[in-house]
Give the backbone structure.
Amino acid sequence: MKQQYEEVLTKYIPLPTVERIAGLIIFFGVHLRITRERSTKLGDFRPSEGVRGHKITINHNLNPYAFLITLVHELAHFVNWNSHGDSVRPHGSEWKHHFKELMDPFLNHDVFPEEVLHVVRKYLRNPAASSCVDEDLLRALKLFDSEQTLLLEDIPQNALFRLKTGRVFRKGEQRRKYFTCLELDSRKQYLVNPLAEVELLGERS
């Protein structure tokens, strides 16, 4: 079983981490499933339900460093659940402790390039519920995507764009962190993350 996981993981995470990660998956008794891209999440953890075992799912299209961080994030959820059940917050201090502990063996230059490593170390001082929340980490990870995507912050003000959800907006002004954008169908204003992946559109006739 471990060898099977190692063969699969070799395609998705940095090679120096494969043996340890496969060992953790087997030791924890979780089932890893690699899924299609999901616009609302990169991965998730589902505790055992009856005869079904613990399950972790990770989007298939993450680059090796993003995949590793996401997988360890979800493994930390297992450890947190196994230790505390649902008596603590999913991303509270207990989960942060487990996440940092599981990530610690990977915080070196054999695993991460320097431009990612120092940002990961900074992020782990107080990790958020999602790596997407940390703009510095998200930018560093996106450098290693196989396909470079267009971000909201890269397009001109007043430009029309489409999100992965299919909703179309006009880019407005930035207010502190987020851009105020007008959704064309509803005519409502929404705050959109500057690092949201977008498709630039021409003006509607």
User: Anything to note?
Assistant: The mean pLDDT is 91. The chain has six helices and eight strands. Helices lie at 2-9, 15-28, 64-84, 93-103, 114-123, 135-142.
